[in-house]
Amino acid sequence: MPILKEGLKKLYFPSTVLKLVRNGPNVPAVSNTLTFRVPPSMNKFDIKSYLANIYKLNILDVRTANMPAKLAGSGGNTILKRQKYKKAIVTIDHEFKWPEAPDSATFGIQDAVNERSRMMNRLKGWRMRPHHGLQAAKKAAEAEAAAAAKETTKA
């Protein structure tokens, strides 16, 4: 059986993406555990090698969990299916502190939200309405028909 040596595999241009996500609400803001979303094809050795070679982290432990695909209803008859992924909880040798959340005005996030709501409000009243000339012609035709019906009942 070959001896596995972790962290010796050279990675120059990695084709996989490890997404660092915030830990759950029960984990303190400063801790030595990091949570990543990784592709389901990656195993513990790949994750450890990836983080050790690219980010030069000293990794103590890697735990993984396969997260199933979930159905997400969007209303109506369409059914969306969220993609399955693997969650990797990595323990490192030093403590990691998440940076403070940036101000939304700094990145223009609030401006984009305001612009979208302004555009949606602009289009709120847009729908196909019958032409006023056609409505008037319909009413006139109905009035003439009612008048003709009265004359026939009188005679």
Automatic annotation (TrEMBL):
Family classification: Belongs to the universal ribosomal protein uL23 family.
Annotated protein name in UniProt: Large ribosomal subunit protein uL23m
UniProt cross-references to Gene3D superfamilies, sorted A to Z: 3.30.70.330
Keywords: Ribonucleoprotein, Ribosomal protein
CC annotations in GO: mitochondrial large ribosomal subunit
KW Ribonucleoprotein (keyword) present: yes
Keyword Repressor applies: no
GO MF, one example: structural constituent of ribosome
Listed GO biological process terms: mitochondrial translation
InterPro entries, sorted: Nucleotide-bd_a/b_plait_sf, Ribosomal_uL23-like, Ribosomal_uL23/eL15/eS24_sf
